[in-house]
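EI: anyone free to look at a 213-residue chain?
SC: sure, send it
EI:
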Amino acid sequence: MPVYPFSCHSCEYELMHTDALSWRSLEIILQLCNAEFERLLQGLVISLLLIYLILVIQFGSFIQPLVMMLSIPLQLVGVFGALLLAGQTLSTVSILGIIILSGLSVSAAILLLELILTKRQEGVPRDIAIREAGPVRLKAIVMTTFTTIIVIVRLAFFPETGMDAYSPIATVILGGLVISTLLTLIVVPVVYSVVDDVSRWLFGLRKKLRWHS
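SC: here you go
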């Protein structure tokens, strides 16, 4: 069973008192921590697959949902940056926060790209559709992010007694949501343009090959 270099909140007390434990007891504790991490990582993978499948069904495409889900890896920049600034480690609680954050961060990309696709279906050129969709969706995206931040900022910086164990969840959501929102507004339209150019080039190439054949 692999050993993850993270902290495990459920095993924190025991690991702080390793002097009073036998090596066998310590090995059992580490195995329990590893099993807990494996379950959470499996939950994260399953949640990402479900998000992708839902987007495929909703938009009827296998490519566009991948562009929307690009906001999920972008959030990791803010996640690890926030944990580093807060002096916290990547724990089981933090991974739980990443699972929650995955659904929140992808919503900004969905709002932005959905309007771009709608405008393109109306006959608006791609570049104009991107320029028009950005300002329209900016207010909704910023207000959604700002509302979430207001709710979790107290738990992240001023947790009450007994709630400090869940502070990493708020830290992860706070850092990841802010950074993913900012990067999504820039990166997603750029990646969408590149994917669209590649798709059109492949379509033209296939059309030429059929014509020559």
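EI: Residues 1-6, 12-18 have pLDDT under 50 and may be disordered.
SC: 👍
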